[in-house]
Automatic annotation (TrEMBL), chain A:
This is Oligopeptide ABC transporter ATP-binding protein. It comes from the Bacteria. It comes from Brevibacillus borstelensis AK1. One of its GO terms (biological process) is peptide transport. It is a peripheral membrane protein. The keyword ATP-binding applies. One of its GO terms (molecular function) is ATP hydrolysis activity. Keywords: ATP-binding, Cell membrane, Membrane, Nucleotide-binding, Transport. GO terms for cellular component: plasma membrane. Belongs to the ABC transporter superfamily. Residues 7-256 form the ABC transporter domain.
Amino acid sequence: MNKLLEVRDLEVSFSTYVGEVKAVRGVSLELDKGETLAIVGESGSGKSVTSKSLMRLLPSPMARIKNGEILFEGRDVAKLSEKEMQDIRGAEISMIFQDPMTSLNPTMTVGKQIDEVILKHQKVSKAEAAKRSVELLALVGIPQPETRYKQYPHQMSGGMRQRVVIAMALACNPKILIADEPTTALDVTIQAQILDLMRDLQEKTGTAIILITHDLGVVANMASRVAVMYAGKIVEVGTVDEIFYQPKHPYTMGLLASMPKLHMQEEQLMAIPGTPPDLLDPPKGCGFASRCPYALEICLSYQPEHMRCSDTHQAACWLLDERAPKMDDTVGWRERSLT
Amino acid sequence: MKRYIGMRLVYLLITLFVITTATFFLMKQLPGTPFDEEKLNRLPVEERQLLYASYGLDQPVYVQYVRYLANVVQGDFGTSFTYKNMPVKDIIANRIGPSALIGLQAVVLGLSIGLILGIIAAYRHNSAWDYFTMFIAVLGVSVPNFVLAALLQYYVGLKWGLLPVAFWDSYENSILPSVALSVGVVAIIARFARNEMLEVLQQDYITTAKAKGLTNMAVVMRHAVRNSLIPVVTILGPIVVNLLTGSLVIENIFGVPGIGSLFVDSIKMNDYSTIMGITIFYSAFYVFIMLIVDMLYSVIDPRIRLASGGE
């Protein structure tokens, strides 16, 4: 019971005009104090929806948590009242968004925007909040914080705005920081700075980070554990080393194989052929079966359970079943990439 | 900022000059004279010439134009042809009060109700309240305000006897015309505010604000309203001018002695100096309000402050 966050069988659906889109289909994950968990997957795999549902920030009434529990320090977030949820947002769990150019209010000074979080969650005067905001700006490495405090977002660069967003997220020392593709919209040089900053701040504050990304480079840099998502499910979860060096799920292998490498001889980049399944009508069996070079007959009709590979490593794939034929780790993908 | 306002004032003068010129020559194309044709025909030719000459109407149009312009520059807008020897300036000054009062009340009423309706409609998107607001908005735009005026007069004025039906004796007289005028404003503003709010509520910074743990109320009031006001301010300019300078029909129905009715009368009577006076007054007011609106932008939206060189 010492897990900070425990998600069990989370199911999230969006009702649309054409029907119900099952964006998240039974996700379970855990987060310890102070650790960094990366959730990777391609667009539409449900990683952002999962993270937003942890804070209950999904657009209602279109999106709905249909099933499952989100236990934050033992309390089920999914069942809290809106008022109780507001006390958690920004104070206990906070979030950094993808695009710093649009995630700050253009008509409010950045200082006021940081003050707001502090005033909401801490019993301090406006002057104290302002003082704390300036300190936060300095903490996230913004020069001349007093001047910047009075400026509007449009007077700052993208990297600087993302620093402001981070300052805002950390203002109340949250226990969990959800970073939803925090560097995707930034220049490569700025990306590295922002990641460094996040790592530094994590060391100082001991905040646990859930890092949502599709950039495996970022994962290798930041995370201690990785969860790989595909078609609304977690297909594999393990430590960074396990995922990068002993991937068990063919999708994870495909992801790793499609990363360009410096020593690569071939000119063509490897891609996973096909497209993810339509979540309006999700497949009966494994979501990846139709694209999987190793797919067995059973994969098409039955969902694989999570199978333990080690204490920290699990993957949901029929190939790991003891009755399955043994596969040669790499052949399948290499054959694909050459055709 | 000073430089910007200075520039705007120069443009304002140029605009006024163009409008004055165009109106003057168009007006001279109107058939007839300011005088009663029948009585005029009974006058001997010499006396008729004298009459024309005393008003300067015997001169070619361009001479009249230059003279008029020279007078206007000196602040003299001439005297009315219909109201004997009354300076146009005084006539407008006498009539502006009632028009401004009902106009101002209609703007305040229309703007506040419209904004409230629109904001709540957007916030409760696709709810009964939303549909109700949009129903009001469509009704307000499509039902002419004189129909509503007649209904108000009949029910509120006559049947229930709550407020005077017409004329201009006390403050109560201004209420019904203001209400009748404001309905159109409510409709336009509500629709605009709703659409803008819906747009703004989709923005990332609204999610950021929610992620801070702010209450829904705080998110809407502090983050959404101000950002959705920017386009609303744009349409506010023309609305304010229209209302403050009087609605012809409404003033007529309620017997309000305002500028609208004066304008119509002056055109019917070929009262040249009054037509010109009111036109210049209208346009000056319009251009001035537009300037205010543009300055309001920079108050609401800090990004515009920079663009105009304020920083």
